[in-house]
Design goal:
GO terms for molecular function: 4 iron, 4 sulfur cluster binding; 4-hydroxy-3-methylbut-2-enyl diphosphate reductase activity; metal ion binding. By secondary structure, the protein is an alpha/beta fold. The protein has 10 helices and 12 strands. Strand 9, helix 9 and strand 10 form a beta-alpha-beta unit. Helix 8 runs parallel beside helix 9.
């Protein structure tokens, strides 16, 4: 028998739930098609499900027909994108995660103080591009401690840092320490401002790794937080696999294994986790338990135009 331990918490965070429901409510209130700039969240199954119901995903606003209802994704957008939407008189619903919006506000506040900004994050990630585009002034992107050593700034006494929300306190601790060592006057937000969901899911994987032989992370390859969950499992010495769904399960992974941990990235729906459990049952009998973990009760308000939709 294979022992299966589920991480707690796992899967959808409040920002993702809100973003998906914004598209669903918009489809219900305004009717399809609803145009969404970039993937609403980084999960293939979620995107495909919304697409079948009338959501049209576009890379840029020039693909949106005149006057069509437009949604900005949970990752946030650059100010220039907001301006382009206004220039084209597009009706816009902003599904930016409130925690991402908080980072935007912090960055703008620091820039207004005349500080250069150091953004800790992943180059090319939609959230990072949106954050950089929300801040007037100089923004330096750092991804590693080594990047901190190579940083060239105008005035070391006028520096501030902010972080991508899908990185945890653990992910950023070393980089922030390096920034503080090199630039003692640097200021930044309290670590409590970092995304609670990212931290909770990573802590749960650490707990999981202590109890199982291997780890399965349900999530899409373009999901930053899902990839990080898999990396943590590997760092803790457990074979770890990032899978979109049950179809990716490989029987060879389970040779000689008596226990497996299952978790899901913040943009992966619970239905996929349950599908993976069904997939595991095809290999033989399983015994399922769930870790004791943090119970998340965070809820975010909906935009005013959809509050009663």
């Amino acid at each position: 028998m294979l022992r299966v331990v589920l991480a707690q918490p796992r899967g959808f965070c409040a920002g993702v739930e809100r973003a998906i429901e914004i598209v669903e409510r918009a489809l219900k209130k305004y009717g399809p098609p609803i145009y969404v700039r970039h993937e609403i969240v980084h999960n293939r199954h979620v995107v495909e499900s919304l697409r079948t119901r009338g959501a049209v995903f576009v890379d840029e606003l020039d693909e949106v027909p005149p006057g069509a209802m437009t949604v900005f994704s949970a990752h946030g957008v650059a100010r220039r994108v907001e301006e382009l939407a206004a220039e084209r008189s597009l009706p816009v619903i902003d599904a930016t995660c409130p925690l991402v919006a908080k980072v935007h506000n912090e960055g703008r506040r620091y820039a207004a103080q005349g500080r250069e900004i150091v953004l800790v994050g992943h180059a090319g990630h939609a959230e990072v591009e949106g954050t950089i585009g929300q801040i007037d002034g100089t923004v330096h992107l750092v991804q590693t401690v080594d990047d901190v050593g190579r940083l060239t700034v105008g005035d070391p006494a006028k520096l501030a840092y902010i972080t991508q929300t899908t990185l945890s306190v653990d992910d950023t601790r070393g980089i922030i320490a390096a920034l503080q060592a090199r630039f003692p006057a640097i200021v930044g937000p309290d670590v409590r401002d970092i995304c609670y969901a990212t931290q909770n899911r990573q802590s749960a994987v650490r707990d999981l790794a202590a109890q199982v032989d291997m780890i399965l992370v349900v999530g899409s390859r373009n999901s930053s937080n899902s990839n990080r969950l898999r990396e943590i499992g590997e760092e803790l010495g457990k074979p770890s696999y990032l899978i979109d769904d049950a179809s990716a399960l490989d029987p060879a992974w389970f040779a000689g294994k008596t226990s497996v941990g299952v978790t899901a990235g913040a943009s992966a729906p619970e239905t996929l986790v349950q599908g993976v459990l069904e997939g595991l049952r095809r290999f033989g009998e399983i015994d399922i338990s769930t870790l004791a973990g943090v119970a998340e009760d965070v809820r975010f308000r909906f935009p005013a135009e959809l509050a009663d939709a």
